[in-house]
Amino acid sequence: MADKITSRQEDYSQWYIDLVRSAKLADYSDVRGCMVIRPNGYAIWEKMQTALDGMFKATGHVNAYFPLFIPESFIAKEAEHIEGFAPECAVVTHGGGEELTEKLYVRPTSETIIWSSYKKWIQSYRDLPILINQWANVVRWEMRTRLFLRTTEFLWQEGHTAHATPEEAQEEVIRMINVYRTFAEEYMALPVIVGRKTDSEKFAGADATYCIEAMMQDGKALQAGTSHNLGQNFAKAFDCQFQSKDGVLEYVWATSWGVSTRLIGALIMAHSDDKGLVLPPKLASRQVVIIPILKGNKEEVRAHARFIARALNHHGIPTFVDDSENNSPGWKFAEYELQGIPVRIELGPRDIAEGKCVAARRDTLEKTELLLDDTLPANIEEILNNIQQNLYDRALLFRQENTVEVSSWEEFKAKVEKGFVIAHWDGTAETEALIKEETKATIRVLPTDEDYRQQYNMDEPGTCIHSGNPAAQKVVFAKAY
Amino acid sequence: MADKITSRQEDYSQWYIDLVRSAKLADYSDVRGCMVIRPNGYAIWEKMQTALDGMFKATGHVNAYFPLFIPESFIAKEAEHIEGFAPECAVVTHGGGEELTEKLYVRPTSETIIWSSYKKWIQSYRDLPILINQWANVVRWEMRTRLFLRTTEFLWQEGHTAHATPEEAQEEVIRMINVYRTFAEEYMALPVIVGRKTDSEKFAGADATYCIEAMMQDGKALQAGTSHNLGQNFAKAFDCQFQSKDGVLEYVWATSWGVSTRLIGALIMAHSDDKGLVLPPKLASRQVVIIPILKGNKEEVRAHARFIARALNHHGIPTFVDDSENNSPGWKFAEYELQGIPVRIELGPRDIAEGKCVAARRDTLEKTELLLDDTLPANIEEILNNIQQNLYDRALLFRQENTVEVSSWEEFKAKVEKGFVIAHWDGTAETEALIKEETKATIRVLPTDEDYRQQYNMDEPGTCIHSGNPAAQKVVFAKAY
Ligand SMILES: [Zn+2]
Ligand SMILES: [Zn+2]
């Protein structure tokens, strides 16, 4: 059984660590900064992969696989890129018992190794677009780690596309950040703000970075996915030109986009509670647990439990029975609440006699009596749908309640300690840096979503919250993971 | 369009390379010994993963993920293991800009890093069994590489299980080699011999290795999957004990088992021909291509082609239309034969008028006229089933025709140049080594399958083909990839 979980109130960071370890989602390994993703955690990643992979394929992408190792000279070809990534790389210096003539970097991201292939594959406009995604592990040396959110090795997908025109590339960038938004909202039940990053916060080597930003239960922001317009930067670095329809040689236009296992951390921090994991049903590999109350004719209770499980599974609701006698029903209730199983069905001899059962939903812990007849699957499905919707609604409400517009610097400093702060910014990197230095808050996003911009009058001109200079728009500030 | 492919007759090795590159399955990268798996090749791996992952889950396994890096001291804990793997490892010596105090090996296989976690997870018999699989990349430094078959980095799955008794562990070892056999036969259409490896050929750190061995079209053997009984070797190396039901501390029993992207190489070498890839329908992500002959009322032909594609897709037969006018039908026929699409449907204005189409199957290149009515999906499905069966049958026939029993050393040396040779062996590592030295042939497998043993009278005692000493059984020799 689980160790006690610290409450969110008492210590939010400790709550997160306790939960991840008690629910057996992940563990630190004996390798500094690297995690073990345990079966309960990996099952969430598999559900995420299946949903995302389907969305990538529906938008015309195919999967491929490129090498783990990147020669030092490749990383060095794009100036901003090497400056951003080289310091946090793991470096292979020996292979097959010998010292290598050129060092190999373990990929921190794959733009360079992929563009060294694209250069060979692209001659003419007929070879474009290339719409490739890769599921892979990447390594970025981290000094301070946190399970799922920041580890030296993590799993992700990285899309890398090549286009004949800047318009097409920009369309792709927007298409994919919207795919991430849909995934976050519809599968993770996580409301996100879609928008651009400032130049200081963008990807090393990109012309522009789009992101989705979510709010965690402690009011901090978490960047949940990014989509980069790479312009012609990598095509130029790898001398990748194509013959256009007009017979002119031009550099190829590029995008890249990715999400990672940090989404599992976001999922936990957005929805879970002091009893443990709360999972949106769409990302739960097991949606229902049936716990028979083994009294009286135990075998009859067991048989009924199995029969109901078969019926629910038959209706596409993944269900399992825990009828072991090693643990009490109470122990099992706590254990599956900890594991985040969305619905628990309790079933005793009296229930069976009365033709009913009790269904407890994980998000609100409410219990409902349901009939043990052919209405059961539809009733369970409705509860699951309600959970999925309720998680989204309450996360959105929480974000709204913790988003505040401010117009004085004193107010800014006070409010940015928890939640999102909407304030005017003069558009300079200098002001951005000063605010970060003084408050540790950063500009999370310049929202692009029209509804969001209108809700907070983002386009209204005003005075910069820090410099006092004229500001063309408001932006979203927060402390972030 | 593809470059010309060398014929198998002319140069089998060159044929393989030409095919892999022309069909855009894989490419060498700019990193020595590492390949790029291109979308056409990766699509095969995805089909393999889906089928295998389903079989693993059906036998009670769950997925997890362990670190890429293994501390040098871990690899060193199992004596045979370090001797076998350390010389072929890639070694990380620097991370985050600093020299590491302990070198990290990029995993060549994960027994050691996984058992360092299992040690923490296992206290009592209640914690057993652990039935975990991992999908991952691994690195083994290779001097001589061949796309898919032998590369420095490759993709694989590795199962790692922990058990309370040696009987349970052995059951698992046999269960999983049989899963591989079923996968090879039913999905890859590849007949395999199931059996044990000799001690000289077993996994470094195992008590016993079971394998499936397949024959390629040049008569060479290819090891397509292995399942290892690791005894208590790794539990002892990592001091992993559990309290048994009787309250006694015992070391845990272990297995591991894996298949890799080398299966794609096996698939190609077993079935493909001088025109290109031949794919078993069950591993083809696109089973049917419709090529409209664009004459007369082109739009009507196109519309019919799309209508048929929808009908076939609706019946679960993945179908696409190539109606581009950039390339001629003849060019398309060759291109999709190269890519191994199992069935091609040709459809011209006259066919439509007569209510029929022509279906060409990739394995035999035979053409059949089919009616354009609601019998079409069932007829196409029958052709697909026939292809799947025919590929298996002809590979089995080929193996039988190229398996020979010999009783003299002269005959052995002649016959072992191509195909499998069944011969008596005295059971000593010394004889095994001498035979390898003189002929480059190895003992591929001590078959465990009763049918196979009976077919070749494997249990018949006799005289060792090389030493002339008494031999209790016959074994299977071959040159191998
Ligand atoms: Zn200031
Ligand atoms: Zn000899």
UniProtKB/TrEMBL annotation, chains A, B:
Keywords carried by this UniProt record: Aminoacyl-tRNA synthetase, ATP-binding, Cytoplasm, Ligase, Nucleotide-binding, Protein biosynthesis
Protein EC: 6.1.1.15
Aminoacyl-transfer RNA synthetases class-II family profile domain sequence ranges: 32-280
The keyword Aminoacyl-tRNA synthetase appears for this protein: yes
Subcellular location: Cytoplasm
Organism field: Chlorobaculum limnaeum
Function statement: Catalyzes the attachment of proline to tRNA(Pro) in a two-step reaction: proline is first activated by ATP to form Pro-AMP and then transferred to the acceptor end of tRNA(Pro).
SMART domains linked to this entry: ProRS-C_1
Name of the featured protein: Proline--tRNA ligase
Record's subunit section: Homodimer.
Gene Ontology CC annotations of this record: aminoacyl-tRNA synthetase multienzyme complex; cytoplasm
